[in-house]
């Protein structure tokens, strides 16, 4: 049986604000999507790769990823959808009959190390059907009521705190996330509707699995799997890359 990796790269990178999609922005001379694909390939546990790309950029993405000498697994490129979830679904539709395990990873996390890829896949192959990397949270996190609190009137905008969850039990979740293929397919088919009906947040693939009532497990994440959203993140990633070499 084989492991398929879906690498999402179809976003536009609005918050980074460049004139090209974020996945094609360069870091140390290579596009983010290439960094991510290299690390997936060199994990040794990925058999093939599907990259989701922005409309009209299939050949540009195929050229940079499939022709990179360090990406030595078969690469297919598929146009993504309007949302990340739709892009993952487009990639998942290309899973073959032998792909029993599926990884979902974001080009926006270009430096997720190969050992992290192995860790999530090994946990799924050991029998946990949905596994995500997570890091302990260092800030105290508060849940607030939706909207502005108008109880005082005047002064700066305020929100009302509803709850302070125990930080010890919070994890900041990353990608790559790994799933038994049949479970991920069912989560994509049924999870979004269930999450909406029950007011649950399904902002990642694991959230869709939770929404259909199935267990999700967390393994140790990695600082290097940080997400690039802004120019500042890109600077930090550059420093991490320097540290790596
Ligand atoms: N993504 C995707 N298809 C979409 C939206 C996002 O494949 N329709 C991918 C992005 O390419 C990225 C990952 O999902 O690798 C995480 O999304 P995010 O960090 O939000 O990237 P962008 O959507 O590109 O950035 P922004 O939200 O700032 O526009
Ligand atoms: Mg986005």
Automatic annotation (TrEMBL):
Enzyme Commission no: 2.7.7.60
Pfam family name, one: IspD
Keyword presence, Nucleotidyltransferase: yes
GO molecular function: 2-C-methyl-D-erythritol 4-phosphate cytidylyltransferase activity
Pathway: Isoprenoid biosynthesis; isopentenyl diphosphate biosynthesis via DXP pathway; isopentenyl diphosphate from 1-deoxy-D-xylulose 5-phosphate: step 2/6
Annotated positions for site Positions MEP for the nucleophilic attack: 167, 227
InterPro entries reported for this sequence: IspD, IspD/TarI, IspD/TarI_cytidylyltransf_bact, ISPD_synthase_CS, Nucleotide-diphossugar_trans
UniProt keyword terms in alphabetical order: Isoprene biosynthesis, Nucleotidyltransferase, Transferase
Catalytic activity: 2-C-methyl-D-erythritol 4-phosphate + CTP + H(+) = 4-CDP-2-C-methyl-D-erythritol + diphosphate
Matches recorded under PROSITE patterns: ISPD
Site (Transition state stabilizer): 15, 22
NCBIfam families in the cross-refs: ispD
Biological role: Catalyzes the formation of 4-diphosphocytidyl-2-C-methyl-D-erythritol from CTP and 2-C-methyl-D-erythritol 4-phosphate (MEP).
HAMAP family: IspD
Family of the protein in this entry: Belongs to the IspD/TarI cytidylyltransferase family. IspD subfamily.
Protein name as catalogued: 2-C-methyl-D-erythritol 4-phosphate cytidylyltransferase
Organism per entry: Isoptericola peretonis
Lineage: Bacteria, Bacillati, Actinomycetota, Actinomycetes, Micrococcales
